Amino acid sequence: MKKILIQLWGGIGDMIWLTPSLIALRKKFPKSEITVISQETTPLDVIKDSGIVNECFSLSSPLFNGVLGKLKLLKEIMSMKSDIAISNWASPCFTSSFISFLSGAKVRIGQNRGGRGFLNTMTVPSYNNIHEVEANLKIFSSIGVPTNSKNLFMHISEQDKAFASEWLHLQKIGTRDLLIGIHPGPKGKYGRQWNIDKFVKLCKLLNKKENLKIIVFGGPDEGDLVQYLCSCINGIFGYVGRDNLNHTAAIISRCSLFISNDSGLAHIASAVGVPVIAIFGPTVFWQNRPYGEKNVVIRKDLPCSPCYKIGKPIKCKTLECLKQITVDEVFEKADKMLSIIQNDDINDSILIKKT
Length: 355
What we know:
By secondary structure, the protein is of the alpha/beta class. It has two domains: 3-143, Glycogen Phosphorylase B (Rossmann fold), CATH 3.40.50.2000; 158-354, Rossmann fold. It has helices at residues 12-28, 66-78, 93-102, 132-140, 158-170, 196-206, 223-232, 245-252, 264-271, 285-288, 320-323, 327-354, and strands at residues 3-8, 33-38, 55-58, 84-87, 107-110, 122-123, 178-183, 212-218, 237-240, 257-261, 276-279, 296-298. Helix 1 (12-28) links the parallel strand 1 and strand 2. Helix 5 packs across helix 8 and helix 6 runs parallel beside helix 12 (327-354).
C-alpha cells in the first residue's frame, strides 16, 4: 500500500481524537505515504512536523480561495492517486466520500448516514454511542489497524518547550508553583460557555490557595475574555495564543490542572497528560469528553440533555444544563483534585530523595 489519504473534519479536538488511529496506522504501514486533508487549518498543528504523516494541508487554505483556488484544490486532490482513503468519524458523508472518489482511491472507507456516503466502497457503522477516539479506531480497524493503544498525541517540539519556559520565566512563575489553567472559551460556540462571571468567582476562590498560580488561556479571538478575567482578579496571568497552537500546548503542559468548557484547549490538556475538569452543557459528553481516566466532566443530567446533534445548531434558549452548574461544585472538585496532585508530588519528591 503506497498512498493513504485521511480526511479530518472538525476542530482541534477531532484531530486529537484521531491521533491514536494515525499513530497505529503509521506503525501498521511504516513505508506508506500518508496525507491528511483537514477541513480547518489550526487542527493540523497537532500533527504537523511530528513524523506521523508525510503531508497535510487544509481545505480552508488561502491558496484555495476563489474559482482559481478551487480549481487548484481539485487538481491537488485528483493528483494524489491514493490507494486507500479513510474519513474520520466526524466527516460529512457525501463531501468526504466525493473527495475520496476524486483522489482516485480504489478503497474508500466512511459512513453512509442517510445514504449520502454512496461513493464509499466500504461502509462503516455510525458508532454514535462511544467516544470519538474509539469510533475512529473502529473505522481504521477495517483495514487491519490495531486498536489496542488509545494514547492521545499533541506535537510539542523542543523549541515550543523553550518558548514556554521563557514565557513562564518572564511572568516570574517558578518551577515550584502549582499552575492551574483556565479556559473560558470557546468564544462564539453557543451552548459551550459557562457564565464568565462564574469563572471569575471560581478563580477568586482558587487564587486564595497558597503556592498556586492561575493562567487564563484564550485563542486568537478570545483576548477580551482573557482580559476580563485578569482585570477582575489581582495576581493571575493571561496567555492568548495568537498564531501558534504548539506554544499554547507547551504552556498548558506545565499546568497541574486545567479547568475549561467543552473546548479544543481542554483536549490539548488531556493529550499532554494534564488532568482536566470539563464543564459540559448540551453537547454529547460520552462522545466529546476529554479522553482519559484522569479527567472529570461536570454536567447536569436533565431530561432534555444532551440535545446537540452533529452539524446542527443548538436551539435551546435557556441552557439550564449550564446554568445549574454552580461555582461551588466546580471548586470542590478542583480542590479535591489539587489535593491528590499535591500529595502525589510530595510522594514523588520523597521517592527521589530516597533513591
